[in-house]
Amino acid sequence: MSGRDMSYEAVMARRNEIMMASLGIDYDEFELTDLAFDYEKMMGRTGYSLEDVARIQHETKVGSTPLFELRNLTNAVRRYAEPGKGARIFVKDEAANASGSYKARRASIACYEAAAKGYRGVATATSGNYGAGVASQAAMRSLACVVVQEVYDSRFVGQPEIVEKSRACEAYGAEVLKLTVGPELFWQMLVVLEETGFFNASLYTPFGIRGVETLGVEIAQQCRDQAGREPDVVIATNAGGGNLTGTARGLLAAGAQDTRVVACSVDLSGLSMASDHDFNRKSFTTGHTGFGVPFTTEPDRADVPRNAARPLRYMDEYQLVSQGEVFYVTELLTKLEGMERGPAGNTSVTAAVTLAAQMAEDQIVVVQETEYTGAGKHHNRQLSFARENGIEVRVGDPAQNVPGRSIVIPERLEQVRGRVQDLDRLRRSRIKNCLKQLPAAQWSDVDYEYVAAETRSDRAFVESVLADMNA
Question: What is the C-alpha separation between 176 and 174, in angstroms, rounded?
């Protein structure tokens, strides 16, 4: 855009102006105080009912994916579980969506909205499946598409999973801007939006989260039809939080009030997602704690003023699994169930194994997504890449995994144990981040109500945490 200052500082200063032009949403209308905002008002801003969303998605080959019972995997768990234990495991095969993942649900509404408002194209910043989802949906809506991705470390060595996702975006006709890891991603996205005048198909707008709600609705309905009851547990792989948020909201909309919603991430503790050194020392580019924990405790770190993905509002439990455990279960899913799928959904399948072994045989646990696999996404390529980057890969006790140094693949299924993350510790961290926005001495009743909702707790819990912090 000629004549405008495109320096980092100048573009970031125009952030709200660019967002307004690229989304048509004035986020200021949702603000209640210097801390609180009206989340439900923002979610209602899309104007689409769940029926509208399902119809829009059907137009572009999204939704109504099958729910399969994994009988062989369930039987394998029952062979080592205590008598009477071993819940039935189901999986929602989201790889059946156009572009091969549940991200098509998020992209479908954004692209529909862009076309309805007369935008010529859409743009998004993502290194995950969402880029392919947006590119695929844009192609079907005759929209141009730009995807901004962090692909390389400073040696210009590309993480093979992200390289595969770049290929998929280009196959659907998108222009892909490939960056090295660093802080310029958001700045580059703003520049693209300002220069092109495209619609901002961010992962974190109300449109994206609304699109995932149909996933939760379908799980509740299909479980009732196939098993005669609602699921006891639904597991969602957690990164930016939209997967869990949308699914949980859909379950609630479908009346599955008693279903527990469990988050699951690959434990990459100790690795920094912004580090050039660590960028290629991880085998999972999404669905890990490097995104899952910070986005859970500080959701508004996103590329929109207010993030519609707020997982801590809906989370009943948070499971962590190791890279080695997920690789083991990925291969088991292929050999027992004949389903060769990608890493994101298999992260939740791994947690399903650990939970099913602790649950009664007549209970039901649902893994709410699968994704396509192949090329750099395939687990064999990821393990080869890990070795090329000096990571030790061996068989043994997965408790000995050290992110960035070793991947230990279990010898047998009963070694897949995962571990539970302390949810109250995440709640305290969320409250601590709220204090950065507004000191507790200035909180009103509206602020206390907001923070309680943000942490899925109550005012007494919030006040007790503040007292512990002497805030």
Answer: 6
Which of 6-10's residues contact partners 24+ apart within 8 Å by CB, and which partners?
Answer: 6/191, 8/184, 8/187
Secondary structure in 3-state letters for 215-269: HHHHHHHHHHHHHCCCCCEEEEECCCCHHHHHHHHHHHHCCCCCCEEEEEEECCC
Cα 395 to Cα 269, 324, 400, 407: the distances in Å are: 21, 9, 10, 8
The answer to whether 81 and 357 are in contact (CB under 8 A) is yes
Chain segment 335-367, per-residue pLDDT in tens: 999 999 988 889 999 999 999 999 999 999 999
Q: Residue 356 has which token pair?
A: 């099913």
- Distance of alpha carbon 384 from alpha carbon 283, whole angstroms: 10
In whole angstroms, how far apart are CA 278 and each of 156, 162, 269, 282, 387?
A: 14, 15, 11, 7, 14
For 380, counting Cβ atoms within 10 Å of its Cβ (0-12 exposed, 13-18 middle, 19+ buried), the class is: exposed
How confident is the model at residue 361, as a pLDDT?
Answer: 98
pLDDT tens for 67-116 read 999 999 999 999 999 999 999 999 999 999 999 999 999 999 999 999 99
Give me the residues paired with residue 409 across strands.
Answer: 395
For the chain, helix, strand, coil in percent to 5 are 50, 15, 35
Spatial contact of 313 and 246, defined as CB atoms under 8 Å apart? no
How open is the CA angle 230-232-235, to the nearest 5 degrees? 110
Give Cα separations from 62 to 93, 103, 105, 140 (angstroms). 12, 10, 6, 12
Strand partners, 394: 408
Dihedral angle of Cα 395, 400, 405, 407, to the nearest 10 degrees? 30
Amino acid, res. 28: D
Upper half-sphere CA count for residue 38 (Cβ side, 13 Å): 11
Contact 131, 137 (CB under 8 A): no
Interacting residues of 82 by C-beta distance below 8 A, sequence separation 6+: none
- Is the sign of the CA dihedral 171, 265, 217, 353 positive or negative? positive
Predicted TM-score of the model (pTM): 0.95
Structure tokens at 292: 């899952």
Largest CA distance in the chain: 73
Query: What are the helix and strand counts (H, E) for the chain?
Result: 18, 13
Q: Which two tokens stand for residue 349?
A: 């399948």
